[in-house]
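#structure-requests
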Amino acid sequence: MNTINAARRMGRRWLCPLLLVIALPLVTSVASASGESPQQTSAVQSLGDALAAIDYLSGRFRQTTYPQEGGRATTASGEFRLQAPGRFLWRIEAPDNQLVVTEGTYLWHYDEDLETATRRPVSATASAPLQVLAGDRDSLSRDFTVSRRGEHAYTLLPTAPDAGFQSLELDFEEGLPAALAIVDNLSQRIEIRLEALSTEAFDSDIFNFSPPDGVDVFIHDA
């Protein structure tokens, strides 16, 4: 990496906090955890049914991050695609160019402006929020406490101490996920609005990422 890019990377604010929370599972079968309350079981069943009905989902997003203690909010926008089970693409187009993508085994983060690509196993981000939109119902029961805030609104609290976020709110409109609100472990609130939604099938090859020639590649095996 050249000196200019190294300095930019060190000084740049993280514009993709969703990497910390990218695990909402699209699911197929419910396994009720021992000691689970009837309310939790009902919420898991309802959310699991809503997500299981979606094989493909694509559209646009608008993301706003509110720092702790009233700092200046930052915004980002771009496109996304999800395919159950376990595949998603999240492409930031403004204010810069970043890509988060997984085919189900590895998760890539490609920063086009800094010419860097980082690969991690999906298991290392297993209870983070975009895999809740592309995962499995068993993990809803196993990895989250799920409650309903309304007929089509849910709150998920991760049970793992190292989940990377404190809470996730997920709202549906007309049967599709339309809004997410995430509080991360720095107490930042990340609000995401999903727009121009489509459930039409698309080519799964878009989830297969290969770093372009000339970029710096970082591989993390754990």
